Amino acid sequence: MAEFRLPANSRIRPGVTHKAPQGAHEVRTVRIYRFDPDSGENPRVDTFELDAAECGQMVLDVLIRIKASRDASLTFRRSCREGICGSCAMNINGINRLACITSLHDLEREIHIYPLPHMPVVKDLVPDLTTFYAQYASVKPWLMTQTPAPPDGERLQSKAEQEKIDRPAACILCACCSTACPSYWWNSERYLGPAALLAAYRWIIDSRDEATGERLDALEDPFKLYRCHTIMNCTDVCPKDLNPAKAIAEIKKMLVQRQS
């Protein structure tokens, strides 16, 4: 994809090469971005040659193997290993993906692993998602009502009403979509990005929510919403097969319809 956000005046330098163990029958080469801001050194790319028979099936298995047996300082996020939590999102062979559900069999023999593009790097494959989460919080991703809840039950909705929010609500906040979006790269401090706007849409169309007008007012801004140019990278890379681009288009349509 595009170049990664690095500290000013820095260049990626060659790193350490870890050779395959003797007797390896099927060697896979993995090149991993390494950067420790506290070291004062430029980023580098380390090379690890591994025996595929010892790596497991997924890219996350490879990273765990490297950390356990080759370089304990390698830093990355992981949790569920089932494509549910979104922790292990990273750029693998030029595409934002979840390492835990990316099969080695779907990749070339040489694998390049970088952190999510155009984000400050905390260390190695760990991006700083502070701004990303703040943007998500800014759309108020919770039920907003003015009327009291039924005294003897829940706020109900029909099956059809629930199905409208079923897919948008499946977002796991992995940030693959936002960090694949050129508009977000260029305007990340003002454009909310696909993930936050998908969350906003999920609550706008929720039949139980009573703050539709307030939510639309908050998004009617030249940058928060309208920096989307329908490039579609967000939809292409979503590991949950969601469609943030369509959600953004629907929000724009609602704003037009409200004005007419």
Mass-distribution shape? elongated
- CA(first)-CA(last) distance: 40 Å
**Sheet with most strands: strand arrangement:** 1-3-2-6-4-5
Q: What is the element string, with H for helices and E for strands?
A: EEEHEEEEEHHHHHHH
Strands, count: 8
Continuous helix count: 8
CATH topology of the largest domain: Fumarate Reductase Iron-sulfur Protein, Chain B, domain 2
How many domain units?
2
Main sheet record:
6 strands, mixed
Average per-residue pLDDT, rounded, comes to 93
Q: Spans of 5+ residues with little confidence (pLDDT < 50)?
A: 1-9
CATH superfamily of the largest domain: Alpha-helical ferredoxin
- What structural class do the secondary elements suggest? alpha/beta
Beta-strand portion reads 15-25%
Radius of gyration: 21 Å
Features:
8 strands; six-stranded mixed beta sheet; elongated; alpha/beta; Fumarate Reductase Iron-sulfur Protein, Chain B, domain 2; 260 residues; 8 helices
Write up this protein.
With 260 residues, the protein is α/β, with parallel strands linked by helices. It has two domains: 13-127, Beta-grasp domain (Ubiquitin-like (UB roll)), CATH 3.10.20.30; 130-259, Alpha-helical ferredoxin (Fumarate Reductase Iron-sulfur Protein, Chain B, domain 2), CATH 1.10.1060.10. It has eight helices and eight strands; from the N terminus they run E-E-E-H-E-E-E-E-E-H-H-H-H-H-H-H. The chain has a six-stranded mixed β-sheet, with no helix packed on it. Strands 7-8 form a two-stranded antiparallel sheet. A hairpin with a 2-residue loop joins strand 4 and strand 5 (95-98). Helix 2 runs parallel beside helix 5. The longest helix has 16 residues, at 244-259. The chain is elongated, with a radius of gyration of 21 Å. The chain starts with 12 loop residues before the first strand and ends with a helix. The relative contact order is 0.12.
